[in-house]
Structures are given as C-alpha cells and as structure tokens.
Amino acid sequence: MIPTAPAAATPPATMSLCWIESGRFGPATASALLIRHGAETVLVDAGNSSNFDAEIEVYDAPIRRRFARLPGLLKPDRPFSEQLRAIGVEPETITWFIPTHAHIDHIGGYLDLPPLPVLMAAPEQDLIERGRDQVLEEVVPAHARAIAAQIQPIAFDDGPYETFPTHADLFGDGSLILLPLHGHTPGSVGVLVNLPDGRRIFLIGDAANDRKGVAKLRARPKLLRWTDADRPKAEGVVAQLHALVEAAPEIELVPAHERKAYVETFGAPAERCPP
Questions:
Q1: Confidence (pTM)
Q2: Is 124 helix (H, G, I), strand (E, B) or coil?
Q3: What domains are there in the chain, each with its CATH number?
Q4: Cα separation, 256 vs 44, whole angstroms
Q5: Which end of the chain offers a freer environment for a tag, N or C, measured as fewer CB atoms within 10 Å?
C-alpha cells in the first residue's frame, strides 16, 4: 500500500450528488451521477445512447449479438437529455462530462446531449483517437467521432491520495477526486466525491463487478473478463481498491452496474437534482 493522508476536504455546503438511472435489467443498471458544486455541474457517465441499435450496425453480426446480450439490455427508454430535464437539469449547464471509460454503455448517452467538455485520461483519449477511423469494439465509432474534439486530458499531478500514487483534485478543495483505474480500459478512471456531510462515495466504473468482488479480491466473472483491455492491470486495480477500503472503510464503493450498491448508497434515483 502506498500511504498518504490527504488534506481534509472542504466542499461547499451546497454541494450535492444525484443518481440518474438511464437503464435497468434485473440487478444491473446503466447509471450516471450528477454533481453540483457551486456554479459548476459535473456529469459522470451517461449510459447508452437512444440510437444504440443504429450505432452498432457498423459491427459484424457476432459483435452486434454480444452488444445486444450485455449493454443492449440496459438501453434507455428516452434520450438522456430528456432524463436530465425531468430532474431539473438543463444539459447546456453541465460544465464537464467525465466518463469512467469509453465503453458503449458509459458514453453513449453523451450523443443525446449538446457538445460538452470531456475530461479523460490520456490513454483513454488515445483509444478515442484510434476509434475515430477504425471499427474498434472498445469504442463505438460514432461515439469516438462525437467526443474526440471535446476532450481535455486529465493531469494526474496532485500527488498521492490514500492508497493511490497520484490523483487529480478537480476543484482544488478535495471534494471531487479523480483516480486512475487503468486496466479495464487503457485509461479508466474513478470519481471519488467527498460530500459536505462527511460521506465519501467512489464511483469505480467497471473496475469491479460488485462490492463483494472488491471485498473478496475476486476477479470479474468469466462472462465479462473479455471486456478487460489488460487483465493483470485490471486485477491489480481490484487489489488497490481492496486496500483502499481497508484503509478508509467509510468510503462507499459504487461499481457502475451494481444496482444494489446504488440503492444502498442513494436509496432511489433522483426525482429532482437541486442546483
């Protein structure tokens, strides 16, 4: 474990965090988080696109079937922009979009929004650039073309944080911390939110399938391991997350598709997300 105690977070008293569920199938969810921080609004992940079926037509039949069996079960019933407006959020007011990674069920909903600045780790940006002109399974070409010009690379240069060797403090007050979770994709990131009431909520994307996987140091199910770009790195991230919750048990991990974790953390999807 790499130690370091970060300075106490000083989030604004009005800071809030909302859960937006764009798709659901049984115990699985495709969800987003919306963070209100003063005048800034941050969107983390966006679920699938409302044009999911058309966007995957570029792939051969076996890949289309794979998409239909997994992320395709979590398709939204309306565009993500409508979901945002339904909870009182105008898409044009979002300051940054931060995808945990570039897979179809995390950035697809971005295509239902106006162009927004995107924060992304450099290795993930490289993946997006390759995906603009190639048909890669890791990133849908339509998504890569929509997002590429909007990317601002994350500078992980704020030094060690908890068990991580480096981090990025988005607002400089310790309230929203970006952490590298490279492995599932080349530049996956996690978003740790330190709220005014002392709660610490960490969206870990697809770094782990569920909380139990982190607690038991358990690899992702065989059905899903093919989605990991670098399996040894991905397994190392699970070990890193395990060390984190051992060192800071107050942190609530939220794996991207574990609906149970969202319910335990948020209760229910937001009906309104106050400014």
A1: 0.95
A2: helix
A3: 16-266 (3.60.15.10)
A4: 10
A5: C
